[in-house]
Hints:
Structural class of chain A: mainly alpha
Oligomer: heterodimer
Helix content of chain B: over 70%
Distance between the termini of chain B: 58 Å
Number of helices of chain A: 9
Number of helices of chain B: 3
Largest sheet of chain A: none
Shape of chain B: flat
Amino acid sequence: MHPTTSAVTLAVAVFLASAVESVEALTIIVAAGVSRGWRSALTGMAAALGALVVLVAALGPALVYLVPVNVLRAVVGALLLVFGLQWLRKAVLRAVGLKAKHDEDAIFKQHVDALTLSERPEPADRGRVDATGFVVAFKGTFLEGLEVVIIVLGLGGGDHQLGLASAAAGTAMLVVAGVGVVVARQLAGVPENAMKTVVGLMLTSFGTFWAGEGLGVRWPGSDLAILVLVGGYAFVTWALVVLARPSPSPVSSEQARA
Amino acid sequence: MPEAPAPAAAPAPLLMRWLKAFGAFWWDFLVGDTPELLIGVLVAIGLVALLVKASSLNGAAVAVFPAAVVLLLGGSVYQARRAKH
Lengths: 258, 85
């Protein structure tokens, strides 16, 4: 594969994965902002983003320059593979109705209900940062962000493209934040489940490729093998959705004929 | 005479709580409700390493690794489907 094509594939994978995680974080931040005040929610989010930047700055260069590239690729590939398979499995189960779809509106309502019920600050303290709102926004941003960091370090570090991966993740966060400002509480409009399937395919493909390279496998066609893996896994995912779809029960067939 | 209430247990030190939360995050991240995927990936990697390092069977490794991944995904979906029915 041409180096540019490889970089574009990597950037798309990081962008989509980061966008999905950002939507989940945004749901929590908006819920905290609406129910506990925007000052606490935005402060919590900013503090978490700061902590994540420090984490990437501390771990990124150490990973890229100190760990031998084959060891890094084998470990990172295994991590991406596990992560990607988990996402693909969930995607198949959601597609056949064996698992509830990720409903951001329902999650938003759940958070708002829980936060509204907990004790609110006294009116005199309204100027202060509300601890509950801060902690909820911090935790939501940090945990979802940590998954982005792992993907950025994994995909970017494994291919020595940390700058590109960080830029793709940053762009995804800005896009989601921009969309979030416009649509505010209508996060369910984001096609999160479809995006998760694509991300699952990419993480599984990159994971297989890099774990293999780290172990000494020489893939035919070099980087082109990533595209072949994406296509193959996409076909298998589609086949699993068709095969795992529950067949109509005999009773319901009878009822349908009646 | 009423018994004196037992003293409340002291909260765990901050470092311990952080370590516990860190461990819980990684456990949930890597294992969650699908331990078979983590174990399967480790077994597949071991098998590929054996094929490449010990037997120099690169062609077999190229075929076996993606096939193992497909089997893992299919097996895990099948298991989830059976559990639901």
